User: What shape does this take?
Amino acid sequence: MIRIFLYFGLTLTQNFVYSENIYRTYNSTNELDWWQTGIIYQIYVRSFKDTNSDGIGDLNGVTQKVDYLKDLGIGAIWLSPIFESPQYDFGYDISNYRQIDKDYGTLADFDRLLDTYHKAGIKVLLDFVPNHSSHLHEWFLKSVKRIPPFTDYYVWEDPVITKEGRKPPNNWLSVFNSGTAWEWNEERNQYYFHQFLVEQPDFNYRSPMLVEEMKNVLRFWLDRGVDGFRFDAVNALFERADLVDEPESGDPESGPKDYDFLNHIYTLDQPETYEMVHQWREVIDSYKKSENDTTRMFMVECYSPVDKTMQYYGNDTALGAHFPFNFFFIKDFNRQSDAKQMRNVIASWLTNIPSGKWPNWVIGNHDNSRIASRLDPMLVDGVHMVQMLLPGTTVTYNADELGIEDTYIRWDQTIDNAGLNVGPRRYEKFSRDPERSPFPWDDSLNAGFSDGPKPWLPINPKFWRENMKQQTKYKSHLRTYKQLVSLRKSPAIMYGDLNVFILSKWVLGFSRSYLDHPTYFVVINLGSETERVNLLNARYTLPHILKVKVSSVNSGLVTGNLVRTENIILRPKAALVLTTSRNNEDADNF
Assistant: This one.
């Protein structure tokens, strides 16, 4: 059982005031499953490793890098969509859910990948896109022609006829800032609904046949041996059936065609969506027929308010996802954030999570600017310390372990429709190309990603010095990341109590303690000036000397150094993991 305490400290010299006592039972020491203990590592396949010189990453490239991920200590890989697709949204527009896209390989390539990773002790998760398909999917083409049972597989509506002519059914908008979410189809003589690109028509989950069709897709891959799924854009599954107009948001920075111009109370997080998630859990749980079977799991994407997000865990009568992604470090934490704001981000999840459910921490993905660019390159290690040493599952986006920054993509190089839709004056705000730049493996041609003439996106120009191979040679973000992965296996991190403290305006601290095992104390300086803190003000029971277990690259300290508990000096953006242990086994330098 993990007990959680959060404290406020107003200044270094004031006494700490007890703020909250939150008690959650996550699991006993014998019940933690693989998805709770291991790192889930997101691989954006298109940018990971190209083996056929076409400039696009592929499944064989992922297979080729299994030793890297095993050495990194990864527990599971999550592959971005690899299904057959015309690639308008780079795989999130699926035209065949049971086939591998030719850009990435074949089913035989996938089976070989699955076998290779399983032999390495690493689980494999697929990115499942349930909200919509490609407009080139056979189901949609047949739905256009009203061929049963596909007639109602998608959301079709008649036009509104006015004096000015034909108009969409309501004011709903597309996520990709292209205006109306309704597209007229001449052949069917109706509009179809698309929350995202016009090439991504939304499924109609009020069709029982469609619901069963999608369950069968899950079964197809589960039967093939996958260990679970990440469900994309789950909160968009259902819309109000009566098509009520959504109210304006009042956002001064959004125009009438921008998605944020409206408050999406009728197209997101509808009650029926949670019921659908419960049904999917039943399908996935049916594959664990005995205690000896491996758990199959799924996690869901939903950029939703915390109260709605927590409902995706399920309830007392119906289980939901194993966890919805915790995006609050992406949504609510930035360069301006101080220790109180970091504490609030942590508390927002741990104080709202339903009893008995498991937390998770996400700090980057393929849709958001990388940590080093969003925050600061020197803050990467500290944020990883927070992410990995809090109770819960860690989800890492590929190459964040290297602390690389976004790649600047010029307008003439932009290929993401989210950026193209808004034009050259605003594309930098919306394009997701910068965080999707290919993985920098070494300092060779194209950073070792591809030996072809041109990668699908530009390589980060810093690849000659900021690459994986180079970071194995010295104290680096990569080596710090590996230390943290190893430390996560300790009983104090897996099962220990959590105490969170605000040590100064810019310094956050937290401790993990479990029975007679060593206690770990994490301190992170979010500020731009050197800070001096006294940890005895936070926990007077700490010994007067602590040992450095893990240190950020900019800390000036290494593993094994001893520091005085009442006089911890932190450089700007520096972070430390300190331990009460004095054993020699902790003394290796990184």
